[in-house]
Amino acid sequence: MDVNRSTKIAESCILVIFGATGDLTARKLVPALYNLAREGLLPAHFACVGFARRPKSNEDFRNEMLEAVNNFSRSKPVDQQLWKTFKEQLYYHQSEFHEDEGYERLNAFLHQLDSQMGTKGNRVFYLSVQPSYFPTIVEKLSQHHLIYPVDSVKDKWSRIIIEKPFGRDFESAKQLQQDLIKHLDESQIYRIDHYLGKETVQNLLVLRFSNPIFESVWNNRHIDNIQITVGEEIGIGTRGRFWEEAGMLRDIVQNHMMQLLTLVAMEPPTNLGANAIRDEKVKVLESIRPIPLHSIDEVVIRGQYGPGFINGEPVKGYRQEENVNPESNIETFVAMQLSIDNWRWVDVPFYLRAGKRLPKRATEIAITFKRAPGYLFEGAASQIDPNVLVIRIQPDEGVSLKFNCKVPALDTVQPVKMDFRYGSYFGSAPPEAYERLICDCMAGDNTLFARDDEVITSWKLLTPILEHWEATPPKEFPNYASGTWGPEEAESLLQRQGRHWRLI
């Protein structure tokens, strides 16, 4: 991983966004491009073409994107002088995703832009569409020579960015990969997981491998357990149809959480190249002990939120949400215990939990260290807590360390905290994840993107859980009230081993 962002050079190219009228384009993609331009990180020779089915002019698209940048950019207000230049790089192309004529017109238009903008034939295609469209779009791009074979075209390049989910289970993930590699080399496929673009996640390798005080104790001799939490206050909102097909295990655990786990648990890579880092991540996934079928209900807890209160305001339960089956058994909460069978992590439990309608929005990794062997301070024995290193991914990105300290003038010990926050230390909020990831793709750096074997190995581990859940519907859904930390069984999962979830 290149820790100096300024060394990344995005090459001249055209970015084509399929599904350009969707929410992701307005909320994340175009604001990310604007901020890259603002910071001088967008190529000098660049254009962005929105590809979607609705009729729309270039001017309509530009006006909508101005409103989106005004609403969602991290840098406000919009620099009007910069926008005058930036908007001239935005274009719109209307077509159905399956129509050959639309791709023929696109090809001609991109060649015209190459001459006009100096983009050299380089292409990034961002598939911000439902995964069912991925094979069709890639096939059409190949048929119309919009993507180039890597072994025969040397003077220009083409890359594809696809959004999760990368399949729904082990078999569909393998099928998706087969559909893609009919037309693409693996090096051209950029599977985006925005968590990997967050500064704190990128900092994990620096934190571990450049600080001997941490790496020397990063093992089963010193660590008692590791907890990864992805909590959200919000419910499923208007995504009822999507959520009824997905659920928490597919939407968050299989991708975001497994990526965080691999970065925490991986061995030092041989170098900071993309494949060296991803090789170590795959080794972690291959070392996770499969969960026996008879143990799934003991170590994997599922939940669904019911009515409750968030910030003092009443909210409805999942089954009352729009476009949700009133008898739905889809999970909105997952907690599980995983074990990694290798030399470094044997006997260290990894606890994962993710949920909707929890008391607060928080994503963090908590490393709890073992207690000191014996106590010199008998009177304070019951007050001495274990040391905890917490890596906060959102919000308030940063790192904190809890350690014990004597209370002045008293013979008692109290835990205190050292706290580092990106925003306060560096004087500005870290860049949005999509800024980093889009820039990396244009620079040809796929370090922060998932490789095919990462995705398939993760699905191989989790698919038996999905199959078991489908065969054995839950008996008591909903089983936690909105505004609580999930079902009681999740707390019992740790209590049986003399532990508890960290209070956030």
pLDDT < 50 stretches: 1-6
Helix content: 25-40%
Placed side by side, the strands forming the largest sheet appear as 8-12-13-7-14-15-16-17
Counting DSSP H or I runs of 4 or more residues, the number of helices is 16
Average pLDDT value? Answer: 91
**Binned strand content:** 15-25%
Radius of gyration: 24 Å
Q: Can you tell me the overall shape?
A: globular
Query: Can you count the beta strands?
Result: 18
The CA-CA distance between the termini, in Å, is 30 Å
Please, could you describe this protein's structure?
The protein is 36% helix and 20% strand. It has 16 helices and 18 strands. Strands 8-12-13-7-14-15-16-17 form an eight-stranded mixed β-sheet, sandwiched between helices. The two termini are 30 Å apart.
Give the tags:
504 residues; alpha/beta; eight-stranded mixed β-sheet; six-stranded parallel β-sheet; globular; disordered N terminus
List the helices and strands and how they pair.
Blueprint: E1 13-18, H1 23-38, E2 46-52, H2 58-72, H3 80-87, E3 90-94, H4 100-117, E4 123-127, H5 134-143, E5 158-163, H6 170-181, E6 189-192, H7 199-209, H8 212-215, E7 223-231, H9 240-245, H10 248-265, H11 274-287, H12 296-299, E8 300-303, E9 305-306, E10 308-310, E11 313-315, E12 333-339, E13 349-355, E14 362-369, E15 388-394, E16 398-406, E17 413-421, H13 422-426, H14 433-443, H15 452-471, E18 480-481, H16 488-495
Parallel strand pairs: 1-2, 1-4, 2-3, 4-5, 5-6, 7-13, 9-18
Antiparallel strand pairs: 7-14, 8-12, 10-11, 12-13, 14-15, 15-16, 16-17
Helix pairs in contact: 1-2, 1-14, 6-15, 10-11, 10-15, 11-15
